[in-house]
Amino acid sequence: MTAELEAATKNLQRNGFLDLDVDPTLDLVAEINRLKKEKNAVILAHYYQESEIQDVADFIGDSLALSQKAAQTDAGIIVFAGVHFMAETAKMLSPKKKVLLPDLKAGCSLADSCPPHLFRKFREKYPDHIVVSYINCTAELKTLTDICCTSTNAITVIESIPKNKPIIFAPDKNLGQYLIKKTGRDMVLWNGACMVHEIFSHERIAKLKARHPEAKFIAHPECEPHILEMADFIGSTTGLLKYTMRDATQTYIVATESGILHQMQKASPHKTFIPAPPNNNCACNDCPHMKRNTMEKLYLCMLHEMPEIVLPDWVIEQGVKSIDRMLEISEKAGLGLEKQA
Ligand code: 13P
Ligand code: SF4
User: Fold this and answer.
1) How far from 254 is each of 22, 75, 154, 194, 285, CA to CA, in Å?
2) How confident is the model at residue 280 (pLDDT cuts 50, 70, 90)?
3) Residue 338 binned pLDDT confidence (cut-offs 50, 70, 90)
4) Shared domain check, 300 and 165
5) Hey, how many other C-beta atoms are within 10 angstroms of the C-beta on 296?
């Protein structure tokens, strides 16, 4: 190990990534593709990753599809181009495989909004309730969860629970309120939210809609209720993407993280996609966690096989049950990998 690599490895926990210089003349796409073959590695990327990362990935998808793929892959190494909870989920589903995340500090405000020790106390107040958690939560929270869900299968998961069984839904209050409206179930909600989906401005979207009367406004269910009320269509990232592919409209105002626009534009090159405006002029609908991953960090993490996701055995054993239940319910409902709507 070189002195530089040794120092970077020592600082890994503090930095979250291997802070090493990368030769700027290196063809990163070619290098990453070479490492994939050499190491029998698969790159799974979420739609919110920067476009270059999406283009070098073996599989791009939403949270559900990525977990299904992580459970099925026969690659020896899973490189997760996404955030921490997604890589943890992959590790729980494939505990014998090496799971790499280019930057360990690629977290999630929604997962952070539900600390397991506080949730444990909250859950104790409702001993007869079943716990459904959005997959955007920590591995430890999954050990306190009966069934996980994603935005693609949330309605299906809630509807699979007998009507007389009361439900706690965590951590996203916005998705929770949307689910209450869609399913008619009265759920106890944890008060969490995603910083990216809470930033959209009702007033600025209304003005944009007025300027583009031909456009449809589409939104992710992590958005606040007053934003969802304005939407022509509400869906997960995959749901939104597929909607723009099958719908005849030519212009869309899109209220979710801006990374999805890359696939929308690729699938429908002649259509126009406008990111929904946030409350101010910042780039707040870029997820700062998702965007911590870069091509350089991806390359370094594949080269040195670090940083790696490591979880205690008890967390994997107890937490994976809630993910397995979600995958079973999804499969039964026809939401398998190839069939997602
Ligand atoms: P989906 O991938 O389920 O659409 O969720 C979006 C998200 O916020 C992931 O962090
Ligand atoms: Fe978490 Fe929101 Fe970023 Fe998704 S977009 S990873 S929910 S902070």
Assistant:
1) 35, 34, 21, 16, 10
2) confident
3) low
4) no
5) 17
Domain-embedded: residue 144: yes
Residues 31, 94 within the same domain: yes
Q: Using the mean position of ligand 1's atoms as its centre, give its distance from the Cα of residue 151 in Å.
A: 7
Ligand minimally distant from the alpha carbon of residue 197: 2
151 lines ligand 1 (CB under 6 A): yes
Instruction: Give pTM, 2 decimals.
Output: 0.95
Regarding whether 84 and 8 lie in a shared domain, the answer is yes
- Domain assignment present for residue 120? The answer is yes
Same domain, 325 and 302: no
Decide: 238 and 230 in contact? Cβ < 8 Å.
no
- Same domain as 188, residue 232: no
Which of 44, 46, 60 should be mutated for ligand 1, with most atoms under 8 A from CB?
A: 46
- As a whole-number percent, the residues of the chain with pLDDT over 70 amount to 99
Contact 332, 324 (CB under 8 A): no
159 and 189 belong to one structural domain: yes
Closest CA to 90 of 332, 334, 323, 326: 323
% of the chain beyond a pLDDT of 90: 94
- The single-letter code of the amino acid at 282 is C
Looking from the CA of residue 108, the nearest atom of ligand 1 is: 10
Q: Within 13 Å and on the Cβ side, how many CA atoms surround 249?
A: 19
Q: Residues 249, 209: contact at Cβ < 8 Å? A: no
* CA 294 to ligand 2 centroid distance, Å: 17
- Residue-wise pLDDT for 82-126, tens only, equals 999 999 999 999 999 999 999 999 999 999 999 999 999 999 999
The answer to whether residue 132 sits within a structural domain is: yes
- My answer on whether 147 and 216 are in the same domain is no
What was the pLDDT predicted at 283? 67
Taking the centre of ligand 2 as the mean of its atom positions, its distance from the CA of residue 171, in whole angstroms, is: 12
| 9 and 140 co-located in one domain | no
Counted domains in the chain: 3
pLDDT at residue 171 tops 80: yes
Residue 284: inside a domain: no
Kindly give the distance from the C-alpha atom of residue 150 to the centroid of ligand 1, in angstroms, as a whole number. 7
